[in-house]
Amino acid sequence: MKIKLLSLMSVFLMQPLFATERSVTLDVQNMTCAACPITVKKSLANIEGVSQVTISYADKTAEVSYNDALTTPDTLTDATTNAGYPSTVQEDKSNQQAK
Q1: What is the SS3 assignment for the chain?
Q2: 6, 46, 69, 87: which could form a disulfide with 80 (CB 3.0–4.6 Å)?
Q3: pLDDT tens digits, one per residue of 7-66
């Protein structure tokens, strides 16, 4: 029993070792004024694991860098949606060209 418990604990303790920094671009709806990007940025920056947020009001996008052991793209889109700005993960254009 102790061996199983130790094995399970080691898996959870080692999880951050396998974490990677990822980036995702979100298409953000409803940004209609200069204050909107500030709200979107705050909603994303408050998520644990998010290290950088860059908003483009002109392109209606948010570029987010995050630790994949602490958050997911779904969490990011939920955060903007809850702030009143529904978003979706932008398709990776480099993958589309490779197909």
Answers
A1: CHHHHHHHHHHHHHHHHHCCEEEEEEEECCCCCCCHHHHHHHHHHCCCCEEEEEEECCCCEEEEEEECCCCCHHHHHHHHHHCCCCEEECCCHHHHHHC
A2: 87
A3: 555 545 555 556 799 999 999 999 999 999 999 999 999 999 999 999 999 999 999 999
Cβ neighbors of 48 (< 8 A, separation 6 or more) are 70, 71
Which domains does the chain show, CATH number per domain? 19-91 (3.30.70.100)
Query: Is pTM, for the whole model, over 0.90?
Result: no
